[in-house]
Every structure is written in C-alpha cells, then in structure tokens.
C-alpha cells in the first residue's frame, strides 16, 4: 500500500505549533530566533525546541527546523555551535538553503535529514540530481510549477530516493523564491535572510489600468486538487504561514486534515472551500498548479478578503453588507479562538522531569536509577567504585558531569545521593560512559555525538596576476566588442530556450570564444533544450545561475563558474561547489557588504568573481507583469508570450521609488532597480582576492545614463582594474545616477 501524503504545517510560535498538532498535522516546520527565513515570525528558542519535539512525537507529529537562509562568514562559528546542540536532539529534519550549510552537514554533521528549501528555486531534473549529491532527503519545489512539471520531477526524485514537497496553501510570491532582491536592494531587508518586507504587496501610484497593487497575487490553494497531487506522486503537502496566528493555522490544517482523511478513507475530494475563507486570505487561485497563468491570479488588495468574499456570496457588495460580514467573520474567528485556546493550554511543551538516584559503595558498581513521567530504568557502571581517585563523587561533581541531560527533552529535577557511600571514586571516563548511556535511552536510542570540531579554513593564497575584466552581452549586434577588447565576453542565454536551441547552437559554434551564461530558471522543455545545447556545443567554459546546468557541466567535464544568483556568501559554499562539482570559480553575491566579504577564504586553485557594474535585477516572474500595469491583449500566458512579447513599463510606489518592468523576447518578466550598480571601491578594497571583475553592458533601460558608448565604457573599466588613478572619477562622471548601497550595508 502506498504511503499517504504527509500534511506539513507552519509553526511560527508555540501556540501555532500546538494548533498544528491539535489539528492533525503529520509534521510541523518552525524556526529558531536565528538562521531562519521568517524573521517576522515570533519563532522559538532552543530551550523550547526539545519540549516541542517531545510533544510532537507524542502525538505522532514530526518536527522540521528551518535553517533556510544564506549564512555570512562571521556567523559560521555560531552556526557550528548550534549544529553541535541540534545533533543530540531528536529533530526530524533541517530545512536548508545555503550551500555552505549543506557542506557542513554532509562533511561533519552527518546525522541529520536534509530538506532543500524552496529558496533554492528547484524546478528541473538537474537540480534534483545536484541536491541528491548533497544528500538532500527532501526537496520543496518552486511554487510556480504546473502539475505535469511536478510529476516529472517527482519521478526523478524518487529514483534518487528524494521526497518531494509542494506548497498547497498560503501566500503566493510573484517572484521565483530565492532570486528576489526587491526588499533587499530597496530597504536592506533580504528575502534570503528571512527579512522580506514584501514591497511587491505595497501600494503604488495608480497604473494606466487603474490598479493600486499591481504586483499583488491571490493566495495559493490547491484544496480541490488533491487527487491530481496524489497522482503526481507528491510526498508532502505544505501549508505556508509562519507569520500567521494560531487560529489561522488550526483552521487551515484542520480543513486539509479532513480533506486528506476523506480522500484516503472514502476516495472523495471535497470542493467546498468556504471554511478557508473564514481566516485571512487574499482570495484563492490554483492557476500555477493548473498551468493556467492568467490575470485572474491578481487581486488589487493585499488585505484580508474574508468579509468581501462573504458579502459577495450572500447579500451583495454594499457598505452595510460589508460591515455585517465583518461582524460575522469576527464572531466566527472569536469562536475558533475560544474553542481551541483551552485545548492548547493542555498541550504541554515543558521538558519532562528526571529523578535520578545514585547509589553504591566501594568495590561495587555505581548504580544509577532514573525515573521519568513515563518510565523508569537502572544503569550500572562497568567497573567498581574505589576509595582512591582524582575527585570524590558528590552532588556538585555528578550534576556537572550529567548537565548534558538538560539539553534533551528532559531536565534533572532531583539528583539524590543518599545511598552513595562517602569518599568513593570512579574514573571520569566511566561517568562519561554512563552519561552517554543515559542520553542514548532518553533520546530514543540515538547515539550521543561528542562536540564536532570543524577545522578552521586556511587563509587563501593571494591572486598573483592582475584581475581581468569580463563583459556580459545578450545581442548579436554587440559581437563587435570582441574585436574591441581583450576582456572575456559572456553571452546571456534566454530563459525560453526551446525555440532558440538550434539557432544558439549554430551561433556558438561559429563564435567559440564566447562563453555562454545560463539563466536562473530553466523549466521542462527549456531545460532539456539547454542540455542539448551543452551536448552539441561543448563550450570551453560556462557561467550558470542554475544548479541543474551546473550538475550537467560537472558530469560532462565542462569547466563552469557559479553565477551571482546562486547567492554564494561564505567560504564553505565555495568548498561545496569545488569539492562536490569540480566548479572552477564562483561569483560572490552582490547582497553582502565589504565587511561581510572580508572574512571569505578562497579555496586553492579556485577563482572568485564579482560584479562591479550591472542593471540590478529585483525579481524574475513566471507571471505576466503587464496585466495590472499597462494591460495585455492576452488574458493568460500563452505559448508565444515568452518567445514573442517585448514590452517595458514602470511602476512607482507611494515613496516615489520607481521600478522598471522589462519583458524581452525569449525571457521571463523581470523588474529592475531604477539605477545601475556601480562599485569601483571593491577593486582597491580587495586587490588580491578576485580573479576577475564583471560588467553587464546589456541594453536594460532605467534611470541610469551613459555618457559613452559600450567600447568606451569597457575601456574605462579596464583602466580601473589596471590601477589608473583617475578611472574612478571618470566612471562616476560617465555613469549617473548609480548605487552601491548593498556593498556598504550588506545583509
């Protein structure tokens, strides 16, 4: 019999975790007060964690801990300290984004089940294989995928013994998760650090279509699609909502629990979603899952839609009816809160008390009797007590040796030594052995792991040669630049690869010195076309922002460079890429500051790259961003939209910040910052770290103006990296306005 789909619920605080357990979740995911991607949630402390695990396991519920942010170098010691504590808990899985954390887990902390976060933007088969090599046991797929795309990835994942998890309810991001920098660039609140301020849901000046919230999507709900999800082989369905309150969690999880029970018990799927409208929602859409990406996915209001929905289905949308509906919603929520709050108080997350009695006399074994609320047991030392030794056994000394028990789901309530003879001794190593036996029994027959020392990384060897310049183009009309400079020329490949594959193979076969740059997102046929390109062209080197392409290059022995959208910010990420995938070099993320870059240690025989001039991509979306802005003749995304559409527009928020929307042929919709990045300082700040500095000269229109042509621009940057004293001032005069805020501020 096939295993039932797991119901995975959010737990942003202790009440919500209890509510999820009470409502029938099979598993709950929660974060500590550090290292997790929901900083706005209340979260829990480590002291709470073991009690939560104990309560959950008692109710047949697993607990997954979110460590799903990118981790800067200065945080690595604290992260290692946390892992050393977590390794001796009964946590059921860690949810991870950072490649450096993957490296630490696969190299040193091998006792954890590793879940790949949705922040890794997983959407093709190669990425599944990439994560399999990092010992991922589960992958949370990108939210934008259609059911047939999910099914294809699930098949591949199961071959590699990986479980697949999909979001089925809650907020929809308009950007692919993990590659959205809108909040980070404009406010310093990085989505890759759990601090997203959701500027996509802000109010904007009215667009030409009369919309005030042009980037605001309805919530995701696949409530009526359970049969299709099951047929696709999905292992876990995940509810979003770690910043939601406990009554929301209870209501949504209960509804899904009943849906699952009906499906497995009676082979029925309930189509009535009315209960889901009683708690916070922005209305619902399942169009991503259906592969029907349309304007109906938008709603011009980011606030709670519950009362509006009730008004529309009852008496009509008038002010009086709306006020009446608000009262009904308030009463319904008050009833939910009242009904479950008392039940929550009965779920105790406190650690269980231990009563320990120590007895023995000279020439007999030490006897340790332990009593918990559920059971009792006795242990004996392997050697006898003696009347000579280093330190006599006493209350303070034994309590000190057994203090690790307090880091479990238990705590020492009472330590009794009344039946222990005075002035007896036993070797410290024997007490340590008894402690480990106690921990093994109390921790569900899990062996105790001594603190793991992660070796300090050596300082990198300085780059001996002067750094080079690399230049990105995306149009064949810019090929003339190859004859104007000795700099390396990269060529940006399109997102919509499948209809361009033959043309691109011919183009790169004729221009063998061009280095192809693969985009972040390559789904389904576009990914397979990219594989065909690699096979036919066999380029001398590639740059890729997509780990699926990275894995294929690794398999084929093609040298590859990790692009900036892989969000590399620490030394262990570099080691992960080099040692696992034979990566030849990596860009360092533009999200981090000068101070945060300073601690990074480069592996030997490995090149580091950094972008010093580029238009700043804030987000990439599978949705059409013009529906709410300028309008579009197509109500939904057609097959031809990606290949043929070429548009641009801008939106302005109430703080007068302008964002530029660009859709070029063959690519997804993107939003750009109003000014380009220009960072001339890093060239002199780190003279011996980077092998190459990068500039992007593609024709992306925003507020930044250039007072020179592309050839002249390249020459100015060559002068900069060659140490010409006036080059910084010349670049600032030729490029204006520009920004370097992230390098100064960091994450």
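-> sequence recovered:
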């Amino acid at each position: 019999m096939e295993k039932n789909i797991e119901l995975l619920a959010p737990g942003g605080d202790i009440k919500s975790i209890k509510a999820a357990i009470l409502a029938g979740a099979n598993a709950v995911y929660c974060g500590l007060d550090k290292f997790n991607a929901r900083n706005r949630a209340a979260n829990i402390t480590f002291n709470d964690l073991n009690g939560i695990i104990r309560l959950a396991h008692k109710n047949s519920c697993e607990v997954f801990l979110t460590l799903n942010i990118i981790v800067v170098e200065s945080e690595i010691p604290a992260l290692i300290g946390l892992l050393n504590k977590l390794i001796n808990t009964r946590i059921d899985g860690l949810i991870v984004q950072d490649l450096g954390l993957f490296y630490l887990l696969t190299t040193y902390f091998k006792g954890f089940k590793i879940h790949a976060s949705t922040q890794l933007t997983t959407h093709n088969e190669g990425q599944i294989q990439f994560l399999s090599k990092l010992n991922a046991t589960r992958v949370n797929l990108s939210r934008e995928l259609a059911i047939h795309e999910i099914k294809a990835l699930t098949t591949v994942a199961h071959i590699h013994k990986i479980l697949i998890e999909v979001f089925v309810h809650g907020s929809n991001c308009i950007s692919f998760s993990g590659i959205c920098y809108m909040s980070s660039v404009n406010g310093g609140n990085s989505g890759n650090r759990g601090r997203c301020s959701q500027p996509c849901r802000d109010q904007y000046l009215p667009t030409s279509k009369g919309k005030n919230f042009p980037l605001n999507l309805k919530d995701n709900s696949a409530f009526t699609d359970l049969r299709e999800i099951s047929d696709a082989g999905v292992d876990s369905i995940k509810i979003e909502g770690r910043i939601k309150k406990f009554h929301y969690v209870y209501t949504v999880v209960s509804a899904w629990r009943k849906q699952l029970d009906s499906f497995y018990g009676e082979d029925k799927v309930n189509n009535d979603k009315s209960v889901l409208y009683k708690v916070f929602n922005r209305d619902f859409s399942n169009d991503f899952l259906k592969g029907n990406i349309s304007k109906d996915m938008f709603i011009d209001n980011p606030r709670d839609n519950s009362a509006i929905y009730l008004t529309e289905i009852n008496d009509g949308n008038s002010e009086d009816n709306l006020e009446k509906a608000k009262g009904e919603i308030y009463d319904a929520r008050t009833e939910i809160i009242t009904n479950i709050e008392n039940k929550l108080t009965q779920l105790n997350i406190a650690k269980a008390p231990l009563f320990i009695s120590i007895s023995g006399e000279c020439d007999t074994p030490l006897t340790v009797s332990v009593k918990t609320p559920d059971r009792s047991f006795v242990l004996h030392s392997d050697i006898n007590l003696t009347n000579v030794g280093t330190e006599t056994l006493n209350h303070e000394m034994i309590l000190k040796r057994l203090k690790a028990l307090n880091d479990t789901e238990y705590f020492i309530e009472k330590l009794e030594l009344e039946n222990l003879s005075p002035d007896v001794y036993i070797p410290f190593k024997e007490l340590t052995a008894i402690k480990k036996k106690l921990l093994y029994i109390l921790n569900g027959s899990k062996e105790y792991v001594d603190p793991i020392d992660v070796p300090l990384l050596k300082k990198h060897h300085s780059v001996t040669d002067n750094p080079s310049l690399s230049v990105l183009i995306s149009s064949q009309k810019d090929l003339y630049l190859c004859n104007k400079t000795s700099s390396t020329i990269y060529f940006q490949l399109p997102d919509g690869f499948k209809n361009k594959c033959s043309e691109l193979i011919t183009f790169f076969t004729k221009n063998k010195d061009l280095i192809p740059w693969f985009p972040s997102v390559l789904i389904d046929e576009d990914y397979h076309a990219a594989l065909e390109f690699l096979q036919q062209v066999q380029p001398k080197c590639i740059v890729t922002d997509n780990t699926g392409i990275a894995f294929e290059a690794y398999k084929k022995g093609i040298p590859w460079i990790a692009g900036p959208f892989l969000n590399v910010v620490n030394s262990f990420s570099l080691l992960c890429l080099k040692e696992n995938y034979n990566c030849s070099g990596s860009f360092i993320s533009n999200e981090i500051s000068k101070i945060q870059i300073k601690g990074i240690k480069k592996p030997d025989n490995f090149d580091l790259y950094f972008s010093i001039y580029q238009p700043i991509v804030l987000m990439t979306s599978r949705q059409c961003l013009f529906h709410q802005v300028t309008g579009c003749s197509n109500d939904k995304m057609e097959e031809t939209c990606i290949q043929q559409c070429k548009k641009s527009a801008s939106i302005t928020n109430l703080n007068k910040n302008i964002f530029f929307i660009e859709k070029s042929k063959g690519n997804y919709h993107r939003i750009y910052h109003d000014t380009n990045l220009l960072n001339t300082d890093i060239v002199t700040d780190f003279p011996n770290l980077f092998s190459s500095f990068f500039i992007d000269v593609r024709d992306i229109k925003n507020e930044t103006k250039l007072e020179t042509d592309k050839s002249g621009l390249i020459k100015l940057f060559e002068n900069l990296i060659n140490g010409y004293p006036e080059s910084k001032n010349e670049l600032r005069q030729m490029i204006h306005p520009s920004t370097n805020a992230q390098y100064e501020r960091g994450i």
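The chain has 24 helices and 30 strands.
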